[in-house]
Amino acid sequence: xxxxRSDGSSQLLDELSNDQLxxxxxxxxxxxxxxxxxxxxxxxxxxxxxxxxxxxxxxIIGKRYGESxxxxxxxxxxRYVRLVxxxxxxxxxxxxxxxxxxxxxxxxEVGYGSxxxxxxxxxxxxxxxxxxxxxxMREQALKRLPEHTHNGIHLGDFLSLELGVETGTFQVAYxxxxxxxxxxxxxxxxxxxxxGLLAPGGVLLTITxxxxxxxxxxxxxxxxxxxxAEGFHLREYTLREMVLLLRRAGFAKISTPLFVTRKSTxxxxxxxxxxxxxxxxxxxxxxxxxxxxxxxxxxxxxTLAVKPG
Length: 309
Fold this sequence. Notes:
Blueprint: E1 2-4, E2 10-12, H1 18-38, H2 44-65, H3 78-92, E3 106-110, H4 116-123, E4 127-132, H5 135-144, E5 153-155, E6 170-176, H6 187-197, E7 198-207, H7 239-248, E8 253-255, E9 259-260, E10 265-266, H8 273-279, H9 288-297, E11 302-306
Helix pairs in contact: 1-2
């Protein structure tokens, strides 16, 4: 197994120790992140750094931690799959008196990785589509997913790629550990495009590590807690910042789960999002471990934003 490094050289991975693989990951991710951030908005150099960087780093991660026969799975928690399915089922039974809607609910995932979530959603009978920047990850996803879905499994830059679908096509859009990877000068563009893809009443489910848990990328292996991320997490956001961005993109109702456990996600009204935002700054004054527990337990890394119907 080998990679192409950021300087264009080739690197064999088979003889490297775990410590050497970690260090290589740290060096390469920081350099690719620097190139992405430095490139002008919309530039081909930025798109190229994204694709090359994620192909390189996911290969290192796959070698370091191993990957199953169905591909590399990162950051997937089964409760997120259950939450996505719950949201889709809410639309499946949107007719009067519980009658089935004639429209098959569809999911669009940004950064689908090896397709683990899309696979489960397709098995449940819902439509699936998505986009990924890594060629390696898309190849793994295509092996997982039924052939009839392949036309909707896109590769490339989300903002520039023509997806070939009408606006208002999807009932649920989902991204996990993606928003923090977007250059800050593009975050509203991403949100606006997702807004356009959603049908009226559709929901955008965003899972992105809360800033109070920083750093959430490879930086945490080499730098202390509450250090700003230096790798592919180009910016990490507080819940307050996420709500403001989602409102600017046009979303009306923005909520969080009330709380989460290892196995479940409790949805109730707005999830006390206003109160969470009000008290969120206090987290910086708590011990880091306790702040992490609050962020995770009270779902400060998860938002549900509804497009006006």
